[in-house]
Design a protein that fits this description.
2 copies of one chain form a homodimer.
Chain A: E1 6-12, H1 14-17, H2 24-35, E2 39-46, H3 50-62, E3 67-71, H4 82-90, E4 94-96, H5 98-109, H6 119-123, E5 126-128, E6 132-134, E7 143-148, E8 151-156, H7 160-177, E9 184-191, H8 195-208, E10 213-218, E11 228-235, H9 241-258
Parallel strand pairs in A: 1-2, 1-3, 3-8
Antiparallel strand pairs in A: 4-5, 6-7, 7-8, 9-11, 10-11
């Protein structure tokens, strides 16, 4: 069994913390990690604040994930400060990156509304020293990547269409190349049982099927008689399909015994 | 001007990290912090793993927020391990709490489906030493609160209806009692301008109106001529209403100059 590669996401933006915007970006990315057998270990949502980004990035790098993705804060305005925060965390200077500058330039020369390469536009091509830009096919700010020890750090913009385009073009190939085992999974609904009554049978199933992961999600109320539990069983073992089916059958037998 | 009280949220659950479930709980709570003038500084999403919860809780407590809320992992099953993780982070033992046990007991005695106070149900009344239960009017697992230095730690269940009921009953009164200044805010849509062209005017407005917070969210594309920017201006100053209106007027004048 191949060990899963690990990842973390840092999502930057006051709008996520004041309750204006729901962080759907992280959720969208999370599905791809699961699909390609990577293990997303943590999502951290931070303010548009240099000390917060510096501290959050340092913390994530200390845990040495194989991939660290930051989302948001790459745009032209003053409150877009992710790359400044990342540069602080890496103890690197920010420098105008020629490849990134060419990308930004090409983008604006195609724009009628262009009013020259102002410092606000140069800002989008100013990256931590040693970083490389990732093409943004649908917007102006390129993504950014840099290796930090064994961690690949990737910074993506927060506008969902741009984040998705860069992720699809530059990150998915990386996930695919280092593909882990996508989890085998079964999800069943159990009607008329409450979670605390399910717990003993679940405990026995866990002991009988080591390596499988059982998680129950109550969908009804424990405070009422009728109840619905979504039971999710999964494994990253490559040969676990039959084992999963056996575990479900075992669990249903155990439950019918106690009923 | 009253200083904002600070908060952090730790949201626990593999389902949030494998892309199965979107973390709407944190978003729901975030709105209340804003409403009552509290500053939510960070959201951390963690796996159902003791080392992860221990590490995440220790990290949050080191930053000394006034309030730390954990969501998820209070139920009866083995994968509900938030209180074990919190106890580790606090270097406290887990003990059966009589008040919590009475709450769980009362809940199950009202249940026809009750099959006794199994160890799985006792688990829901087993809290870090020194903690107190918070009544759960719609489910069985009580919320939990404990003071750690200047931080009030509150643990809520992950089932949204239960989380909301305990938050409304036990946390909102606390937010209200230590109410900060809710931010004054104005949000306007700017049509036909791209973000990098807005940036110089925004920069001048920031200098002219210190204390106001400007954030632009591109909703259209920089790669096209027509573009929509949502501009959000806010302040926690109590007397900022007129200032906000002036700032918007100033910004529109600056933009019409450069057009």
């Amino acid at each position: 069994m191949k060990k899963s590669l690990t990842a973390e996401i840092i999502s930057v933006g006051n709008e996520l913390l004041i309750g204006h915007t729901l962080d759907t970006n992280s959720h969208w990315i999370a599905k791809y990690f699961t699909k390609f057998g990577w293990a997303l270990q943590r999502i951290t949502v931070l303010r548009d604040s240099l000390p917060a980004i510096n501290d959050g990035a340092r913390g994530a790098l200390r845990r040495k994930p194989d991939l660290l993705i930051t989302i948001g804060g790459l745009g032209p305005t003053h409150d877009d400060m992710t790359l400044r925060g990342v540069a602080l965390a890496l103890d690197k200077r920010l420098v105008l990156n020629p490849a990134a500058f060419a990308m930004v330039k090409a983008r604006y020369s195609a724009l009628e509304a262009s009013t020259g390469l102002t410092r606000f536009r140069r800002k989008m091509a100013t990256l931590p020293e040693g970083a490389q830009p990732l093409p943004n096919p649908v917007g102006t700010a390129p993504g950014v990547t840099i290796n930090v020890g064994t961690t690949r750090l990737v910074s993506l913009p927060g506008v969902p269409s741009e984040m998705r385009a860069i992720f699809t073009g530059s990150v998915i190939p990386m996930l695919r190349a280092s593909k882990g085992q996508a989890p085998e999974e079964v999800s069943i609904g159990l009607v008329g049982i409450i979670e605390s009554a399910l717990a003993p049978a679940l405990d026995r199933a866990r002991k009988a099927f080591p390596g499988l992961y059982f998680k129950s999600h109550p969908r009804g109320r424990e405070g009422g008689i009728r109840s619905l539990i979504q039971l999710h069983v999964y494994s990253v073992d490559p040969d676990s399909r039959a084992k999963l089916d056996n575990a479900i059958a075992y669990l249903l037998r155990e439950l019918s015994k106690s009923a």
